[in-house]
Design goal:
heterodimer, A: mainly alpha, two-stranded antiparallel sheet, 2 strands, 69% helix, B: mainly alpha, ABC transporter involved in vitamin B12 uptake, BtuC, globular
């Protein structure tokens, strides 16, 4: 009836495509939260980035300029977050929420004012997008059973940003665990006073972490509007920033487990689309909404300590006061 | 610079009146910049908004109808804030509150008279909202998971659950759009034009209904609860310092759960306005962001019922005025109000203390005469 192998490959392939923005946002959040700054504004920064990328790519015809614009806009919002949380010791959740709501409103307002298409940006031609890349030899190897087909159908044929996302996971792991800067970021999220005593700037480190967070969210946004889709659509992030946050918690604020959590949540999403209206043997029809809600349910269960324990960086959410 | 001024006490009128107003003005100033950026004259826009929101009877009715929702969600956020809890889940709690009211009406509206049906519906909305907030509250108190994250997750879970129920279970048979059947008229909350009609006064027909009165009653009750009861004292103590609360013989865990339940119940009352007062059936996404607006309202109103009423009125004006604005000037959409909301949360919430050092300095310029001589 169905070619089982191709179905599996198709789902794995879709998993990578769906997971990419999650992975980028989870790594973004990792930097911010490991440095002690709660970031629920991954969603808003990604949305603003997607809008910036869609607009700039539509006007200039260049996907790369779109990507740069996304990174710039998202970093700007990240610095607003930093300004509120680090410089003015504002409530980090409130600030993140403000950015989410601001982005949600502003992208539609500006989109309608500039393009008059109900909040959408103009559709991009394929040369203004990041299109799927054919990796070398994928044609030649596609005849080879299992491995060759896997290479051709799953590994090859993604946009460059998918590979960038995976590279960023490796980079994040290396920075966080193998560099002096990473050690300092982790330290400032656990015990900022010790970092301060060692003569380092707590604010400086936290600002840098928040800025990196902004850059990654921007890439995630650009992926949505100029790679996965051919334009910006209002509210196109659709809660993925929150799923990434859930994945970050699920991965206990560590890069590789967080990536795996993103892939798992992405897989659930890919599976949900496949399972729509399908009756499984013994179980019957699984409601799509249940699968869609699973990432959130699993995260709640994890946070409640029923499957392992997720322990946040110790100084997370508390502003650092240098004097006294 | 900041710590040198942060321990200087300012008179109450500066802290409670001047600084919050300056923060809002700052937010509105940036909103004006956005309008300029898209080529709209902000002064003209403000004129249209105010006229559309309070300039005629119909507009005023809509403004107060929105205000009702914001009072409920604002109070919900505020009471949690007093217990040092941040309930972001108002949206989901309101949604599930709607489920509670709808379940009551769908099963009982053919059998019970309105005089019983309406109170039972209100209680069901509050109870379901409370139940949806109870879980994150309990998890925070007894399992150590943070209420901010769990309430965010519960918003999404509520949304998925409601889509499932509306599409598969509660939908009126033989109908395409995912909504329930209309409730019997006995379950409808009287709208204000009907209410005034009973006394022979004619006013314009708007969605404004008697739940506005319920919202005002809730304000009084919340005020009494927080500042005039032992439970409110325990709530504020536990919110201020958990260890102090323990020494005072208060159970902080119980306080967390109770505070979340009351908060959820208040959020659930949004359903009274929307489901019982206006739509008369359960529809998809009826909370439409009111839960999130409650956070802005509470921050602006400094978690006090009086402040919340004023902030809710301002947001009512923004919502209704924004709708008129979008109607008059095609370049502007209603989402402008969402952007303004974001700016207000930023300036009145996250950056609330930004201007304080400056206010302190100006204050000291005018004040020092007595202290310098002392």
């Amino acid at each position: 009836m169905l070619d089982n192998i191709s179905t599996v490959y198709a789902i794995v392939d879709a998993t990578f495509r769906v997971s990419t923005p999650l992975i980028l946002c989870a790594m973004a959040g990792l930097f911010s939260e490991r440095s002690g700054i709660v970031d629920i504004s991954l969603e808003g920064k990604m949305l603003a980035g997607a809008f910036a990328a869609g607009s700039v790519a539509a006007v200039t015809g260049s996907a790369w300029l779109g990507l740069l614009a996304a990174i710039a806009v998202s970093m700007a919002l990240a610095l607003v977050h930093g300004f509120a949380c680090i410089t003015h010791r504002g409530n980090q959740v409130v600030s993140g929420l403000a950015i989410n709501i601001l982005a949600s409103g502003l992208t539609v307002v500006l989109g309608i004012a500039w393009f008059a298409r109900g909040g959408q940006t103009p559709s991009l031609q394929s040369d203004a997008r990041f299109m799927p890349l054919e990796l070398p030899l994928s044609q030649a190897l596609s005849g080879v059973p299992v491995v060759g087909r896997f290479y051709a159908e799953v590994v090859s044929g993604h946009s460059i940003l998918v590979y960038v996302a995976l590279a960023i996971v490796a980079l994040t792991w290396w920075i966080v665990y193998r560099t002096r800067y990473g050690l300092r970021i982790r330290a400032v999220g656990e015990n900022p006073l010790a970092v301060d005593t060692a003569g380092l700037s707590v604010s400086g480190l936290r600002y840098s972490a928040v800025a990196i967070c902004g850059a990654f969210c921007g890439i995630a946004g650009a992926y949505l509007s100029v790679s996965q889709n051919a334009s910006f659509v209002r509210e196109m992030t659709a809660g993925q920033g929150y799923i990434a946050l859930a994945a970050l918690i699920f991965g206990k604020w560590r890069p590789v487990p967080a990536m795996l959590a993103c892939l798992m949540f992405g897989f659930l999403d890919a599976l949900a689309i496949r399972l729509q209206g399908v009756k499984l043997p013994h179980i019957g029809e699984v409601p799509v909404q249940l699968i869609q809600a699973l990432p959130y349910i699993l995260t709640v269960v994890l946070l409640a300590g029923f499957i392992g324990r997720a322990i946040a960086p110790r100084a997370i959410g508390t502003p650092f006061i240098k004097e006294r | 610079m900041m710590t040198s001024t942060s321990n200087i006490e300012l008179p109450a009128w500066l802290e409670i009146v001047v600084i919050p107003i300056v923060n809002i003005v700052l937010a509105l100033f940036f909103a004006g910049l956005i309008l300029l950026a898209i080529g709209v004259n902000p002064v003209e826009a403000v004129g249209i908004m105010i006229n559309g929101a309070i300039g005629y009877q119909g507009g005023l009715g809509y403004t107060l109808y929105y205000t009702t929702n914001f009072i409920f969600t604002g109070l919900a956020v505020a009471i949690a804030f007093h217990a040092n809890l941040f309930n972001i889940g108002g949206e989901g709690q309101a949604y599930i509150g709607g489920l509670g009211a709808a379940l009551v009406f769908l099963s009982l509206d053919k059998y019970l008279p309105g005089i019983l049906l309406v109170p039972v519906g209100i209680l069901a909305a509050a109870f379901f909202g409370a139940a949806w907030a109870f879980i994150p509250g309990w998890l925070q108190a007894y399992r150590g998971s943070h209420v901010v994250i769990t309430t965010i997750m519960f918003n999404f879970i509520a949304s998925s659950l409601m889509v499932y129920l509306l599409v598969n279970v509660l939908i009126k048979p033989g109908q395409m759009s995912p909504e329930t059947r209309y409730f019997e008229e006995s379950a409808w909350l009287p709208q204000m034009h009907e209410f005034f009609g009973w006394f022979g006064v004619t006013i314009t027909r708007t969605p404004l209904n008697l739940s506005f009165v319920l919202a005002l009653i809730c304000c009084v009750l919340v005020w009494v609860y927080i500042w005039r009861t032992r439970w409110g004292y325990e709530l504020r103590t536990a919110g201020f310092s958990e260890s102090a609360a323990v020494y005072a013989g208060i159970h902080p865990k119980k306080v967390v759960v109770i505070a979340m339940c009351i908060s959820g119940a208040l959020a659930g009352l949004v359903a009274v306005n929307e489901i019982m007062g206006v739509h008369h059936r359960l529809i998809m996404n009826f909370p439409a962001g009111y839960g999130f607006t409650g956070i802005a309202v509470s921050l602006m109103g400094r978690n006090h019922p009086v402040g919340i009423i004023m902030a809710s009125l301002l947001f009512g004006v923004l919502y209704q005025g924004g709708a008129e604005l979008a109607f008059e000037i095609p370049k502007i959409t209603r989402e402008m109000v969402v952007a303004i909301q974001g700016l207000i949360i930023l300036f009145s919430g996250a950056l609330a203390l930004m201007l304080r050092p400056w206010v302190v300095r100006i204050y000291l310029l005018f004040k020092p005469v007595r202290e310098a001589t002392a």
